[in-house]
Amino acid sequence: MVALSDRMSSELALQTKLSNDTLLHIARVKLDNGAITEYDYRQVELQCLNTQLSYEDAAKNYEALLRRLSTYLGISHRFDISVPSFNL
């Protein structure tokens, strides 16, 4: 269950990172056009860096959990955990 949770956290962190990368690009264009201040741009940049760190932490935690799980199960080859599809 923890593996599935870590997998989903990693995927969510990646989506957040990609969204913030887009926001950073938009903020850069706005800064170049004078629509926002340097301070506002730096705030968006800081947010982007924080989400990058969150993504890297989530990915690292997921990989560590997979290694622990494969050791526990005695599996030597690489495997991945898939998220089942379901409707709420």
UniProtKB/TrEMBL annotation:
* GO terms assigned for molecular function: efflux transmembrane transporter activity
Give the SUPFAM superfamilies listed for this entry: Outer membrane efflux proteins (OEP) (SSF56954)
Name of the featured protein: Outer membrane efflux domain protein
